[in-house]
Amino acid sequence: MGDREADQILVERVQQGDKQAFGLLVSKYQRKLVRLLSRLVRDPAEVEDVAQETFIKAYRALPGFRGESAFYTWLYRIGINAAKNYLAAKGRRTPTSSEFDSEEAEGFDDSEQLRDNNSPERILMSKQIANTVNAAMDRLPEDLRNAISMREIDGMSYEEIAQIMDCPIGTVRSRIFRAREAIAEKLKPLLDLAPDKRW
Amino acid sequence: MMTGATNMNIELSSMIDNELEEGGQQALLVALHSEKELRAAWDTYILIGDSLRASPELATDFTASVINALRAEPTILAIHPRKSPPILRSVAALAASLAGVAVVGWLALSPPATPTSTPAIAKATRPLPAPASERMQEYLMAHQTYSPSSRIQGGSSYIRTVSGSR
To answer: pLDDT per residue over B100-121, tens digit each?
Structure first.
């Protein structure tokens, strides 16, 4: 099962009245969408407003979504339109369509520029999360670290990882879960600082 | 020994990796709908993945805000029939074709219905009714043309009854 099929199951769940399932999609794509929108809207606070508006517009339009395209591609189009409308309402220049539509949604990296634009608090929080995750990764047993790296960084399937690690798929499943739990445990104090983030 | 919550989290971890079967996914979605802790685990696992992929926006987390905003929105109820997998559609098409061929074949090859105990045609013992008068024939023909019981609407004017042709 790929991302598209997995997202479609969540979409159908939302279409059956489950708003929490939409939260899973928001959680999954919010950072990716913010990265994309920050190319259009430079102020990070405004980017987040447009990103939230994008998700709400997407929710309202969801009854008409029939899965002809991937959910994220569809969301991306709504986001670009929301950003353009936002800039037009503010009387700012809207980038031409060729500046956006010609590039693939995933194929860019402007993280340094984003760091420069973010508020000090947000930069600090992002750095703390990144440092905690990296430190937790370093402390993981090698088989757990390799398993989660192959999955999250290289995007390998469990079957591919099982072949490389020469172990059953069930072992891969368990190693990735244990790695996530170990890292989550280290992140807990950091994330518990924001109880309003729970939904 | 693994607890129920741990089992659920293993499934959640698999679901994030798209490595959970659809049946298991549906059951887990039911649990995710009601269990806040499970949703928090989802958020954290997603955050870990974003962090390992060096996403710069790790401080971004507005899921709660969006969900709060959606509380004011009407609940969506738009169930689209799921497309069956191509293999199922092919099998269904093949089955329909075979059924069609079977019906046509059965109709074509089955012997004509010859009742074994054909009732003997009753000999006309009674005298045939006297031919209707010429005027009555015209009346009947005109009536049939507009009669709704006639299968050939408007065509009966071209049909001559046996008695009419005599």
So the answer is: 777 777 777 776 665 555 454 5
Give the structural domain span for B55: 4-72
By Cβ distance, the residue of A14, A55, A56 closest to B76 is A14
* pLDDT mean over B3-14: 88
Count: domains in chain B? 1
Asked if residue B50 belongs to a domain, the reply is yes
Categorize the per-residue pLDDT at A162 as very low, low, confident or very high, splitting at 50, 70 and 90. very high
Decide if A180 touches B, using CB distance below 8 A.
yes
Tell whether B36 is covered by a domain: yes
Report the candidate in A198, A136, A2, A24 with the shortest Cα–Cα distance to residue B42: A24
Which of A15, A174, A199 lies closest to B80 in CB terms? A15
Q: With contacts defined as CB-CB under 8 Å, which chain B residues touch A111?
A: 54-56
Residue B133 lies in a domain: no
Q: Within an 8 Å CB–CB cutoff, is residue A70 touching chain B?
A: no
Query: Given this model, what pLDDT does residue B135 score?
Result: 66
Which residues in chain B have their CB less than 8 angstroms from residue A194's CB?
Answer: 61
Specify the CATH number for the domain of residue B68: 1.10.10
